[in-house]
Amino acid sequence: MSLLARRLFRPFLLAFGALALASAALAAEDARGAKDHPLLTRYPGSHIVEYEKNYNSVEFATGTANGEPKRKAVEGDATVLTYFHNDVDKQPSALQVIRNYQNAVKAIGGEVVYERLPRDGDGGETTLRVATGGKEVWVRLEPGIFSAPTQSYKLWVVEVAAMQQVVTANKLLDELNRNGFIALYIPFDTGKWDLKPEGKAAVAEIVAALKSSSALRISIEGHTDNVGTAAANKALSEKRAQSVMAAVVAGGVDAKRLAAAGFGQEKPIADNRSEEGRAKNRRVELVKK
């Protein structure tokens, strides 16, 4: 190439290089209006290419049947995000992405409902669940191993209003007099026993019922599902029952009229093999003495 040609060609190379760098930087930017779900941040070094948020139903794998994922539809406020890694030389493996999100959810008291580990031709999949902020949150993660130029992963997050039951004082008294007990679904965060605002509303009705029937004595009994060890569940249910009892006493009811006990997973009222069944088993019962 002649000296003149090199001089003419050099600015073109510089311009092309600058354009390539600008394009690479632009490719690492999030799609317009996209943002991480508040509960889960992205894997470091990735960006959002697709973002959707609406009320929808999403299928989540909850087990395996005949070698295929068994799925359950969960309806609620859904956020769907597709991420691409920024650097092909620094991108994590599909397993690293799965473990990252599993650890993040477990760190806030959640659980791994299902996992299919990556293998040839399959990036794997995991389903996670956590109760937080008065809601039940389901997470589905699927790494994409055939994406280009870098690999991707897709995240579905569905927020469902947790099962709640704030029963009026009159209803409490009717059930206790008729059946001798009533089951209340007082929401607690996973592994916790502190009363949330929804739980305090239920306690207010318990206090009102006891004040309107001065001869009534009750046992407050905690129950859990079968996730975790029997010993841990029993201890947790006892702490939840004691937490409710302490709040009732703080509301002005004589502690001598109350007792607290925890039975953990010993007395299920529904099938623990389904999420619906486990939700029903996580309860506080008031039992007339």
Automatic annotation (TrEMBL):
Q: Which residues form the OmpA-like domain?
A: 175-289
What is the residue range of the signal peptide feature?
A: 1-27
Q: Does the keyword Methyltransferase apply?
A: no
Q: Which cellular components does GO assign to this protein?
A: cell outer membrane
**Pfam families this protein is in?**
OmpA
Instruction: Outline the segment boundaries, as ranges, of region: Disordered.
Output: 267-289
Keywords assigned by UniProt, alphabetized: Lipoprotein, Membrane, Signal
> Which Gene3D superfamilies is this protein grouped with?
OmpA-like domain
Q: Which CDD domains match?
A: OmpA_C-like
Where found? Cell outer membrane
User: Where does it mainly reside?
Assistant: membrane
- The name this protein carries in UniProt is Peptidoglycan-associated lipoprotein
